[in-house]
Amino acid sequence: MRQLEQRILEDGRVLPGEVLKVDGFLNHQVDPDLMFAIGSEFAYLFRGEGITKILTVESSGIAPAVMTGLQLHVPVVFARKHKSVTLIDDLFTAEVYSYTKKTSNQISIAKKFLSADDKVLIIDDFLANGQAVQGLFEICDQAKAEIAGAGMVIEKVFQTGHQMIKDRGVRLESLAQITSFEGNQVHFASETTD
Ligand code: 5GP
What we know:
Belongs to the purine/pyrimidine phosphoribosyltransferase family. Xpt subfamily. It catalyses: XMP + diphosphate = xanthine + 5-phospho-alpha-D-ribose 1-diphosphate. The protein contains six helices and ten strands, in the order αββαβαββββαβαββα. It has helices spanning about 1-10, 30-45, 60-70, 130-145, 160-165, 190-194; strands spanning about 15, 20, 55, 75-80, 90-95, 105-110, 120-125, 145-155, 170-180, 185-190. The longest helix has 14 residues, at about 30-45.
């Protein structure tokens, strides 16, 4: 998605540890027009899949997920992050290791918001090693919900998340695919295909 790549080039900052900081439009301050365009793109890509629900993880996945839900006319559920293991019977839970925070969190979704009747689209801000998506897969499995696809705003294709999703046989759509941060610059997969 050209508009998103352009914004990453203008606003993104490459940090040590192969982390891209995009707090100017996605991770802290949010650009609603860009988020709307991102939601439109995901809604277009997944329009024929019969999606009944969108799942994401708080907090940075919520903006693109809501904009997608707005245009697919389906509810959006965000998994909450818990530090302690206070297991309650009415929750689906999974353990997720955070790429940026280097800590483990339990994520959970109330059972009343996900069921075997659902066809789920997973949306998140970044795909790195796929831990967050893996956690949402586990929660869908517990609910016996069908997974229709995964939509990632920014994917770092040189990390392992891409393969994990493909191995599971789930459709993956990423709006910006970063191939490397060589020379402290952002390089996109589209550079080689244009
Ligand atoms: P994963 O679970 O795929 O390893 O990492 C995905 C999560 O880690 C995302 O939800 C995002 O919050 C965070 N993350 C991973 N890589 C980056 C990055 O390069 N920049 C930012 N801002 N967040 C990242």
